[in-house]
């Protein structure tokens, strides 16, 4: 995804090369944005900007990981959508947008702001050295989430984007309907997850690092003949399924 300024380059310009140094208030300030925190009832954050200055307001009543993502999101609007009179008021729904809709220009900007926040919070140049020895499980997600002070959901998405191992993250609602999915660059495009889980009460059960038949999740002809490692996590809204192909040979066409 294209940004006017890449998050990693912004961080490097400030000499930020470790998780504990990712000070989002400082980063926003360096870009000309002042950060305020107040109680908000109808959004998670908003930004008002003009020319080279902006004010970002974040909901102080939200969990700290949510506040951090909201700040990264609004900073993304400031970097990528800057204009003479900039105003964005962003809800939880806006900050959960992942797939851009061709006919919805505003929604596309929310997707871009979300990706910007993800790359700012868990930047590639900082996270990559930690991923080499990490299994693709929610235990690993939890360790990274604590290290970068980011929610487990956001961390799981970023793990799949950056992991050197073949993996996939699938989001289902509690009725077993697929909301979205993300796969690592190693996974071929014809490997996709089922759109519907017929028995969610018995399949979508939280657990970590369990080896199961690939056909449980993967909508691909050869999935019946091999297994994957599954980890399942339930957040406040959805159920996340993390899959790991320990044997890359199964990905060959």
Can you describe what's shown?
The protein has two domains: 115 residues, Arc Repressor Mutant, subunit A (Orthogonal Bundle), CATH 1.10.10; 127 residues, no CATH class. Helices cover 32% and strands 23% of the residues. The protein contains eight helices and nine strands. The chain has a five-stranded antiparallel β-sheet with strand order 6-5-9-8-7, with helices on one face. It has a four-stranded mixed β-sheet with strand order 1-3-2-4. Helix 6 packs across helix 7. The two termini are 28 Å apart. The mean pLDDT is 94.
Give the helices and strands, then pairings.
Elements: H1 7-13, H2 24-30, E1 33-38, E2 45-50, E3 53-59, H3 64-80, E4 86-90, H4 105-121, H5 124-131, H6 138-148, H7 152-162, E5 167-172, E6 178-183, H8 200-203, E7 207-213, E8 227-234, E9 239-244
Give a quick summary of the entry.
The chain is of the alpha+beta class. The chain has helices spanning 7-13, 24-30, 64-80, 105-121, 124-131, 138-148, 152-162, 200-203; strands at residues 33-38, 45-50, 53-59, 86-90, 167-172, 178-183, 207-213, 227-234, 239-244. A hairpin with a 4-residue loop joins β8 (227-234) and β9.
Keywords:
253 residues, Arc Repressor Mutant, subunit A, 5-stranded antiparallel β-sheet, 23% strand
Please provide the ordered H/E string of secondary-structure elements: HHEEEHEHHHHEEHEEE
Q: How does the helix and strand content classify structurally?
A: alpha+beta
Low-confidence stretches: none
Percent of sequence in beta strands: 15-25%
What gyration radius follows from the Cα positions, in whole Å?
19 Å
Strand order of the largest sheet: 6-5-9-8-7
Mean pLDDT: 94
Molecular shape = globular
Percent range of helical residues = 25-40%
Our measurement of the CA-to-CA distance between the termini, rounded to an integer number of angstroms, reads: 28 Å
Main beta-sheet strand count, sense and barrel state: 5 strands, antiparallel
């Amino acid at each position: 995804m294209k940004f006017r300024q890449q998050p990693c380059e912004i961080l490097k310009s400030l000499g930020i090369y470790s998780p504990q140094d990712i000070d989002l208030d400082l980063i926003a300030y360096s870009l000309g944005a002042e950060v305020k925190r107040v109680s908000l009832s109808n959004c998670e954050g908003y930004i008002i900007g003009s020319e080279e200055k902006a004010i970002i307001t974040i909901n102080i009543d939200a969990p700290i990981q949510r506040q951090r993502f909201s700040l990264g999101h609004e900073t993304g609007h400031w970097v990528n959508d800057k204009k003479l009179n900039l105003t964005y008021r962003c809800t939880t729904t806006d900050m959960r947008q992942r797939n851009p809709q061709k006919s919805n220009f505003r929604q596309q900007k929310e997707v871009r702001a979300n990706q910007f926040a993800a790359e700012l919070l868990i930047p590639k140049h900082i996270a990559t050295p930690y991923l080499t020895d990490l299994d693709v499980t929610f235990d690993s997600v939890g360790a990274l989430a604590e290290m970068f002070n980011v929610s487990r959901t956001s961390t799981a998405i970023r793990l799949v984007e950056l992991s050197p191992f073949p993996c996939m993250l699938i989001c289902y609602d509690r009725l077993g309907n697929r909301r979205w999915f993300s796969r690592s660059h190693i996974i071929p495009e014809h490997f996709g997850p089922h759109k519907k889980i017929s028995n969610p009460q018995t399949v979508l059960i939280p657990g970590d690092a369990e080896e199961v038949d690939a056909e449980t999740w993967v909508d691909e002809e050869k999935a019946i003949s091999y297994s994957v490692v599954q980890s399942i996590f339930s957040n406040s809204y959805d159920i996340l399924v993390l899959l790991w192909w320990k044997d890359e040979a199964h990905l060959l066409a």
